[in-house]
Amino acid sequence: MSRKAATDFYAAIEKSAGLLDVKCSRAKVWPIVTAFEDALPKAAILFRVATDTRHEAELNCHLMMLPGDVDPYALALSKGLIKNAGHPIDTLLSDIEERFPVDSYGIDFGIVGGFQKAWSCFPGDSMQKLSELAGVPSMPRGLAENIDLFARYDLAENITLIGMDYEHRTMNVYFGEVAECLRPQVVRSMLREMGMPDPSEQLLNFAGQAFGFYATLSWDSSKIERFCYSAITRDPLALLDRVDPKIEHFLKTIPYGGDDPKAVYVATSPADGEYHKVQSYYQWRPRLVNHMHTSVSDTSD
């Protein structure tokens, strides 16, 4: 059953990549698919495309898995998909596991870039505090140094998951929804304090419909590198005022999850400005999907 799931999933990746004119290398993708094949039958699986320059000519695959199925970093390391470089990010997932309840895991890989990310998701009824997470030995110092900023917007005590980007050596901290933070004047104020560009009208309108957001930090600086708003919709083209041709093509040609909701993101950063990401489900798993939406209220940079 696991090998059939892996074969079917790889075929879907190859087909989707072809529709988007993204080159798919079996030598790079198949080892990732088979490394996680035992988790595939029960996982929620998504395809994602983004419009920033870092993700140009790339198609990402995102898996959400129940705990006990796999320790994603340990498995990726054992299969040679990632190397331990002696960086704090290499121990962040295990440090979190030792100190906090983990309800589910996620991974992200690019069909061009290979294995990239892992997530540890906290239970929906057990959101964590930044003050406690900042005490994790491998956590970047920027998390502690931005606690006061996040606290001013009532974000410091409702952390839903932590993401680790091994490729870029950054981490994401995801916040539960705070309605006040979705108001245009608060969006402007918060992004200004983070050193982000002034938000466009599209970002302001999108933020008002978002169910959650996350910040990206690195170990090299205390500055927040990126801030992203997340929304769920069955019709992303109606949700976004302006749709990048790449996103529109993805939505019109991807052959999976036609009637399922899509996860839509608008991100902003000093380096890249504003850009979009859209996730479409290849395999829907209500238990995991509902938890993911609650967690990021809930996978990506």
Structure described in brief:
The chain is an alpha+beta fold. The protein is 34% helix and 25% strand. The protein has a ten-stranded antiparallel barrel with strand order 1-2-3-4-5-6-7-8-9-10, surrounded by six helices.
- Mean pLDDT value: 90
- The low-pLDDT segments are 290-300
Q: How are the strands of the largest sheet arranged?
A: 1-2-3-4-5-6-7-8-9-10
Count all strands and give the number: 10
Order of helices and strands: HHEEHHEEHHHEEHHEEHHEEH
Beta-sheet strand percentage? 15-25%
Shape label: globular
Helix content bin: 25-40%
Compute the CA-based radius of gyration: 18 Å
Please report the distance between the alpha carbons of the first and last residues: 32 Å
Whole-number total of structural domains: 1
Structural class: alpha+beta
Sheet with the most strands, sense and barrel status: 10 strands, antiparallel, barrel
Oligomer: single chain
Number of H- or I-type helical stretches:
12
Protein name: Prenyltransferase
Keywords: Prenyltransferase, Transferase
Family: Belongs to the aromatic prenyltransferase family.
GO molecular function: prenyltransferase activity
Describe this structure in words.
The chain has 301 residues and is an alpha+beta fold. Helix content is 34%, strand content 25%. It has helices at 2-19, 26-35, 72-78, 89-99, 130-133, 141-145, 147-152, 184-193, 201-207, 236-239, 245-253, 286-296, and strands spanning 44-50, 60-65, 104-110, 114-121, 159-165, 170-175, 212-218, 226-233, 262-269, 273-283. It has a 10-stranded antiparallel beta barrel with strand order 1-2-3-4-5-6-7-8-9-10, surrounded by 6 helices. Helix 1 runs antiparallel to helix 2 (26-35). The longest helix has 18 residues, at 2-19.
